[in-house]
Each structure stands twice: as structure tokens, then as C-alpha cells.
Amino acid sequence: MRSALTPLFVTLAIQALASMAALTVPVLAPEAAADTGYPAKLAGVFIGLVYAGAMGSSLISGALIDRLGPVRVSQICLLLCAAGLLLAASGMLAVMGLGALVIGLGYGPVTPSSSHLLARTTPPHRMGLTFSLKQTGVPLGGAMAGLTVPSLVSGWGWQQALVVVAGLCAVMAALSQPVRGALDGASADDRRAQAPSRRRGVFEPLRMILERPPLRDIALCSFFYSAVQLTVTTYMVIWLTEVYRMEFLLAGVVMAFAQGAGVVGRLLWGWLADRHVPPRVLLSFLGLIMAACMAGYAMTGPDWALGAVLVIAIASGATAIGWNGVYLAEVARLSPPGMAGMLTGGTLFFTYFGVVTVPPALAGIIGATGSFAVAFGAVAVITLAVAAYIGLTRPRLVAN
After folding, report:
1. What is the pLDDT of residues 319-337, one digit of tens each?
2. What is the top-level taxon of the source organism (predicted)?
3. What is the C-alpha separation between 230 and 291, in angstroms, rounded?
4. Which fold has domain 2-182+202-399?
5. How far apart are CA 308 and CA 304, in angstroms?
């Protein structure tokens, strides 16, 4: 039992720190904007650059795992996240953009590395729950950012807060070293066996996904769902402080509640996908709730009760932040033996592409219209359409 849980705990901790690194700048964006003079809505561009870097590194993650092992790759990822945060602390716009790309290079291979480890150690009937539990690292990292970063900013300043989070990433990289030999060595045979088939080019994962309708459709679904997720996590604090007129520290607490709901949601949805509800039916249902939450954000104003805003935040967190474990477990199920890491990296190319394009586009919409409501309403309509598509095409997906 202990050996089976070790990969889960290690990957969970690494995922949490990488997620915290990616979301730290959006959380402190209002305070950084006051100091630098850059608009806070540029947080959408920053997060888009993070995932632009992640798109590229996710495609080569399979080759990196083959060569170095999943834990070693994860350690390098954490160090890249730390370096990117230090660059962002410069306060210079171009250097901050470079820092976002470096964080993305580190963020991209984290999930494929963990999928490689967990796919070979998890029984098929526990895939949904195990992958969802591991993926709780993403909202846990977001909750850590929402709860700790505003306090760090208030006490030491936004640049020092970035340095502290960078230090945490470096510490986690060091803490994972004692288990690296055992975990990387255990998967060495799989890596060697699959390595020859993975040397056909960087875009081989994309070709394999596009040739497999179940993987192709779930990857395209992830494009839109990830856009909703990052819309919530990137703009929540900014929306709460600028539109709802909430105090900065309280806005961080609300974000932490949403991230906490994401943790609960990932566990609940993973359990349901394993035992009661087909994964694609569940993904369709979650998309419908996401669309309703985005419509709720669009309609909410300063006169709304705090309780109503909190309910919407929790519901959006449980769904828009909670869907990933079901998705990743389904990718692992559909992948040939030993290729979960490679094909996860390929599907994540689509996932990250949604993040790269939509949050910056929303920044443009908000800038052009001066309205968060228009941007959130557009996301609601698109998400509703995607959720309906996934639900209505379920028989064809299952048949394939």
C-alpha cells in the first residue's frame, strides 16, 4: 500500500506547487498593477503566455520522460517554474512575459509525467478517483495562492511574494529527490520498450489522437473546458475587486473557496465516473453547470448579496476546476499500455491551446467593451454548445 501511494503523494505535491506558480501572478495582479502601472487585465495575457509555453513542452514531454524519467522531469519543471517567477518579479513588462513562458515550459510536462507514473500503478477500476485525487493538486495550488499570496503581498510586497513561491518550488524539487531513483527506475522498462515507437517526431502524439475519435473528441472538449477553468481562475480576483468592489484580501478568500470546491469536485466526479456515470455523460453535465455559472457571473453586480456570489464561485470551482481528473483518467484508459504519458501530453496540447487563446481574447473583449459581463456571457454560450455536443454524440463516442 505504501509503495502504491508514494507515486500519488509525490505527483500531488508537485502538481500543487506547479499550479500555485502558474496562478500567483493573476492573484497578485491588482497590487502589481498599482505599483507598475500595467492594467490588471493583462493577467489574462500573462496566463496565455504561460500556457503557450506549456503547449510546446507538453508535446515533447513523452520524449523527456523516456530519456530522464517522470520524477526527474518533474523536478526540472519545478525549477523552471521557480525561474519564471523570479523573472516575473523584475516588474519589467517584457521580462515578465518571458517569465510567463518559462513557467509554462515547466508546467507543460508535469501532468504527462504524473500520468505516466499513475497509469502503470493504478487498477483500471480506480482510474477516475486516483487521477482526480492527483489532479486536486491544481485547485490545491490555486487555494494556496488565494490564501497565502495576498498575505505575502500585504506583508512584504508583490515582488517578494513571487520570490517566496519560487523558493517553495525549489524546495519541493529537492524533497522529491529521495524517491526519484525508485520511481524512475520502476518505469524504466516501460520507457525503454516504448521509446522506439516514440521517435517518429514531435507531432506524433497529435497524429495518434486525431486518428482516434474518442481521444480526439475529448481533447477538443478539453480545449473549451480549460478556457472556462482559466477564465474563472484568472479573472476571479480582478472581477471581484473591480466589478463587485470587494476588498483584495476577501477576494483571495473567495477564490480559495472556489479552489477548495474544485478539490471536492474532482474527488466526487472521479468517484462517480468510476462507479455510476459514464465519463462523457459526466463531462457533458459538468459543462452545463459551467455555462450556468458563467451566465451567473455575467449577471452579477455590486448589489448582489455576498452569499449569492459565493454560491456561484463555489459551483464554478466544483465544475470548471473539477472536471480534469475525469478527463485525464479517460485519456489514460484509452491509451495503449505504456503510452499514457505521451498521449496525455498530446491531448494537453489542445487543453493548453484553449487557455492560450481564450483568456487573452477575453482581455481584449473587456478592454474593448469595458464589460466583464459581455466576456463571461460569450464563454457561457460557447460552453453550453460544447456540453450539448459531448452529450448528444455520446453513443458514437462509446461505439468507438
Report:
1. 998 888 788 888 878 777 7
2. Bacteria
3. 14
4. Growth Hormone; Chain: A; (1.20.1250)
5. 7
